[in-house]
């Protein structure tokens, strides 16, 4: 049996890409399913059928880039493990098509038809001195094109025992052990795995037991390299973050994506954040995405909630030509609280997509989800697929979900698919979806107080977003996002 | 198993009207506790020195239907209001009282099919709702809508500035406006944090009513239409609200109020009582009409 520690896509490509296409022998029924590297090698031809040459080529490009840029020292074990698992899953993951339920409304051909260029780390140092990110008073990490830039970061002022930094610099064996346990404990889609192959390192945020971090940690992710609109190339970055909060710990994370001058630069941010929340711990997660309108932004947030833990997500996404956020929350203990408040804005020829999935397997979980979106352009589109699974043991769950969409232009499109799957029989679940223009009686209330229709419409549109924006726990983030939305909406409104 | 519970909500409200009355001997008999507001009101009409008060609102043969269903609600309403008069419209549920109020302020749910409304000499029907408001017409809503995401103070500030623009006065910035509005809260006996809450969001019934009156206090009105400001209020809250109305308005302001109960009239003394029935004002009288009504019901005056 062939075994390798680090399986490489290129090795496999040499087997399976066009030149070697042997007809697949039948798989014998008693063979175990292919779950290990070993089996993969023992069963090559089966894979050849499932592999997508386009995906393999892309994976190979990413792998080559990582190999070329990393130092001679072997990567830390968890990172190696991540790369292995990801490579392996890419072998059997085709590029998603509109026939896949999860991509039914989301056309990813913009990415598929572009030439994807990994960004080498060397280019980072030249911009290290630039003050592209502005100031922040909070502990923060600057991650430019997927690489941590130390000179722009400042992680001082964090309590003892908290580790914030790249996995490759993690010295504590204990933390390493914990990290190993959770790195890639979840399997996402193609983009998740591409990130696993292409991530230069894993940024680790570790909060020890009982530690309450007072100030929010600001992760500032910036896309510096971009191509011109007609170049059909997309420089790709693959930032990856693991947040691990032990029993009783608390932290606020502000994750902010932006990108350079001009609003038509093209790049692809393919980001993953994994969050593990221990017993009674709490993570408040603010996520702001305002990248270029020429960019592709694909984001995964995978959350694992142990008993009595609290997870809050507040999201505002306005950027990207194609922007998709996949949120997966898995409950692994009882009495959890999950609050998801999200706002998407499409002011141009752009797609904003939220796919959320909340899986409740234990009793007395409470979840509240509010998703709102505004489409203010006739070519704009918004997609929402909100899945809540209340499984057999999740008795006395209290799950609420509400989505509201505002279409401000003729032909503006929204596709919403809220869905609850309930197996437990003693639960309280609610769900609502509304797609509308502004409410007449609210408009009239303004008018009845002397405010003209146009000002009233404007105020109501901002207030529609404000319901989510007001949820940001940090006032400075709230202010910043408010003015961002104002700046985007003002010229877009009639 | 999948469960879907889509939520939708539709609301429509209907109600009634009034008739006319001349004789501008306005009887402004509030106890003059008015320390606030614009000019201090004098306590009785006799101080006015006999000059006939100015005509403010004249409604003639007004008929209106629900815009969607074309169902007739108002069937020939006549009413005349002079400066300083307090008119009360009473009537059974569904007689057209609230519809009349809403038609006056230009609510889009209703369509005027006949008759005329003249306000300060202008054709009110031709005016947009916001023009009517800046011209001094104010209606307190029976159940005001909540506006999540818009803070009360921002809303008031916008409305106040709209009025200032109309009067050719400079607008007030948020800080100046705060200084202007804060003392008014005392009038309606509300806490300052009300200003930072979203308009009517999570307000109790009583808070909504007080908030309407706060808006009246901030914006002022030449004709205040008070649609059931007493419904859902306990005795103390009712006294607060009525007191506030009395302190806000001067002898030159007029009131058109809709109510089911005599109780409110003990606080805000009406010049005239109108009884509305089936889209028309069928009877007009003084306070004794309301007293009869309270004792014997609508049968007594039918």
UniProtKB/TrEMBL annotation, chain A:
<dbReference type="InterPro" id="IPR037284">
    <property type="entry name" value="SUF_FeS_clus_asmbl_SufBD_sf"/>
</dbReference>
<dbReference type="Pfam" id="PF01458">
    <property type="entry name" value="SUFBD_core"/>
</dbReference>
<feature type="domain" description="SUF system FeS cluster assembly SufBD N-terminal">
    <location>
        <begin position="139"/>
        <end position="218"/>
    </location>
</feature>
<protein>
    <recommendedName>
        <fullName>Protein ABCI7, chloroplastic</fullName>
    </recommendedName>
</protein>
<dbReference type="Pfam" id="PF19295">
    <property type="entry name" value="SufBD_N"/>
</dbReference>
<dbReference type="GO" id="GO:0016226">
    <property type="term" value="P:iron-sulfur cluster assembly"/>
</dbReference>
<dbReference type="InterPro" id="IPR011542">
    <property type="entry name" value="SUF_FeS_clus_asmbl_SufD"/>
</dbReference>
<feature type="domain" description="SUF system FeS cluster assembly SufBD core">
    <location>
        <begin position="235"/>
        <end position="464"/>
    </location>
</feature>
<dbReference type="InterPro" id="IPR000825">
    <property type="entry name" value="SUF_FeS_clus_asmbl_SufBD_core"/>
</dbReference>
<dbReference type="InterPro" id="IPR055346">
    <property type="entry name" value="Fe-S_cluster_assembly_SufBD"/>
</dbReference>
<feature type="region of interest" description="Disordered">
    <location>
        <begin position="14"/>
        <end position="38"/>
    </location>
</feature>
<dbReference type="InterPro" id="IPR045595">
    <property type="entry name" value="SufBD_N"/>
</dbReference>
From TrEMBL, chain B:
<dbReference type="GO" id="GO:0005524">
    <property type="term" value="F:ATP binding"/>
</dbReference>
<feature type="domain" description="ABC transporter">
    <location>
        <begin position="57"/>
        <end position="302"/>
    </location>
</feature>
<keyword id="KW-0067">ATP-binding</keyword>
<protein>
    <recommendedName>
        <fullName>ABC transporter domain-containing protein</fullName>
    </recommendedName>
</protein>
<keyword id="KW-0547">Nucleotide-binding</keyword>
<dbReference type="InterPro" id="IPR003439">
    <property type="entry name" value="ABC_transporter-like_ATP-bd"/>
</dbReference>
<dbReference type="GO" id="GO:0016887">
    <property type="term" value="F:ATP hydrolysis activity"/>
</dbReference>
<dbReference type="InterPro" id="IPR027417">
    <property type="entry name" value="P-loop_NTPase"/>
</dbReference>
<dbReference type="Pfam" id="PF00005">
    <property type="entry name" value="ABC_tran"/>
</dbReference>
<dbReference type="InterPro" id="IPR010230">
    <property type="entry name" value="FeS-cluster_ATPase_SufC"/>
</dbReference>
<dbReference type="InterPro" id="IPR003593">
    <property type="entry name" value="AAA+_ATPase"/>
</dbReference>
<dbReference type="InterPro" id="IPR017871">
    <property type="entry name" value="ABC_transporter-like_CS"/>
</dbReference>
């Amino acid at each position: 049996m062939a075994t390798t520690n680090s399986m490489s896509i290129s090795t496999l490509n040499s087997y399976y890409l066009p030149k070697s296409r042997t007809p697949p022998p039948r798989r014998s029924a008693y063979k175990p399913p292919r779950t290990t590297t070993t089996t993969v090698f023992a069963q090559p031809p089966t894979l050849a059928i499932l592999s997508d040459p386009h995906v393999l080529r892309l994976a190979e490009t990413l792998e080559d880039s990582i190999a070329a840029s990393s130092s001679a020292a072997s990567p830390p074990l968890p990172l190696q493990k991540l790369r292995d698992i990801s490579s392996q899953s890419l072998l059997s993951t085709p590029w998603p098509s509109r026939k896949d339920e999860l991509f039914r409304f989301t056309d990813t051909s913009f990415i598929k038809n572009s030439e994807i260029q990994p960004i080498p780390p060397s280019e980072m140092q030249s911009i290290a001195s630039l003050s592209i990110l502005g100031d922040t008073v909070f502990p923060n990490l600057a991650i430019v094109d997927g690489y941590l830039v130390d000179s722009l970061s400042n992680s001082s002022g964090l309590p003892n025992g908290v580790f914030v930094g790249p996995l490759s610099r993690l010295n504590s064996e204990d933390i390493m052990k914990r990290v190993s346990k959770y790195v890639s404990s979840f399997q996402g889609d193609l983009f998740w795995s591409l990130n696993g192959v292409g991530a230069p390192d894993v940024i680790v945020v570790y909060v020890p037991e009982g530690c309450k971090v007072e100030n929010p940690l600001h992760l500032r992710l910036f896309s510096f390299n971009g191509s011109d609109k007609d170049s059909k190339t997309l420089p790709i970055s693959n930032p990856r973050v693991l947040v691990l909060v032990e029993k009783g710990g608390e932290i606020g994370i502000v994750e902010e994506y932006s990108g350079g001058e001009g609003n038509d630069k093209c790049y692809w941010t393919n980001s993953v954040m994994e969050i593990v929340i221990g017993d009674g711990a709490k993570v408040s997660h603010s996520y702001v995405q305002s990248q270029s309108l020429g960019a592709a932004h694909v984001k995964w947030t995978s959350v694992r909630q142990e008993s009595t833990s609290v997870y809050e997500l507040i999201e505002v996404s306005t950027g990207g030509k194609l922007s998709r956020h996949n949120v997966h929350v898995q409950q692994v203990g009882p009495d959890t609280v999950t609050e998801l408040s999200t706002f998407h804005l499409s002011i141009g020829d752009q797609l904003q997509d939220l796919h959320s999935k909340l899986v409740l397997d234990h009793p007395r979980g409470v979840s509240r989800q509010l998703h709102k979106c505004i489409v203010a352009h006739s070519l704009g589109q918004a997609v929402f697929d909100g899945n809540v699974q209340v499984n057999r043991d999740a008795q006395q769950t209290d799950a609420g979900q509400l989505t509201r969409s505002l279409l401000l232009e003729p032909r503006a499109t929204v596709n919403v698919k809220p869905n609850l799957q309930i197996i437990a029989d003693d639960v309280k679940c609610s769900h609502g979806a509304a797609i509308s223009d502004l409410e007449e009686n609210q408009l009239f209330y303004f008018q009845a107080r002397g405010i003209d229709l146009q000002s009233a419409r404007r105020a109501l549109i901002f207030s529609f977003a404000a319901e989510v924006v007001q949820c940001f726990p940090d006032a400075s983030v709230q202010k910043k996002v408010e003015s961002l939305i104002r700046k985007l909406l003002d010229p877009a409104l009639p | 198993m999948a469960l879907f519970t889509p939520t939708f909500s539709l609301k429509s409200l209907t109600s009634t009207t009034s008739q006319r009355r001349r004789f501008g001997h306005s009887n402004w008999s509030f106890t003059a506790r008015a320390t606030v507001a614009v000019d201090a009101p004098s306590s009785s009409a006799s101080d006015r020195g006999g000059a006939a008060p100015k005509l403010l609102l004249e409604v003639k043969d007004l008929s209106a239907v629900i815009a969607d269903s074309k169902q007739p609600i108002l069937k020939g309403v006549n009413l005349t209001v002079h400066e300083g008069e307090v008119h009360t419209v009473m009537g059974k549920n569904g007689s057209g009282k609230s519809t009349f109020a809403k038609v006056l302020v230009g609510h889009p749910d209703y369509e005027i099919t006949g008759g005329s409304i003249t306000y300060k000499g202008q054709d009110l029907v031709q005016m947009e709702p916001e023009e009517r408001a800046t011209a001094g017409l104010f209606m307190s809503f029976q159940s005001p809508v909540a506006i999540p995401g818009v803070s009360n103070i921002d809303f008031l500030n916008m409305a106040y500035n709209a009025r200032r623009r109309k009067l050719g006065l400079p607008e007030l910035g948020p800080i100046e406006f705060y200084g202007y509005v804060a003392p008014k809260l005392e009038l309606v006996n509300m806490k300052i944090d009300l200003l930072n809450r979203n308009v009517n969001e999570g307000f109790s019934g009583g808070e909504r009513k007080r908030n309407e009156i706060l808006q009246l206090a901030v914006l002022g009105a030449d004709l205040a239409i008070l649609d059931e400001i007493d419904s859902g209020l306990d005795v103390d809250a009712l006294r607060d609200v009525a007191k506030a109305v009395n302190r806000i308005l001067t002898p030159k302001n007029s009131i058109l109020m809709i109510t089911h109960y005599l109780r409110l009239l003990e606080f805000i003394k009406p010049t005239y009582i109108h009884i509305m029935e089936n889209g028309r004002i069928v009877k007009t009288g003084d306070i004794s009409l309301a007293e009869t009504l309270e004792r014997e019901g609508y049968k007594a005056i039918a």
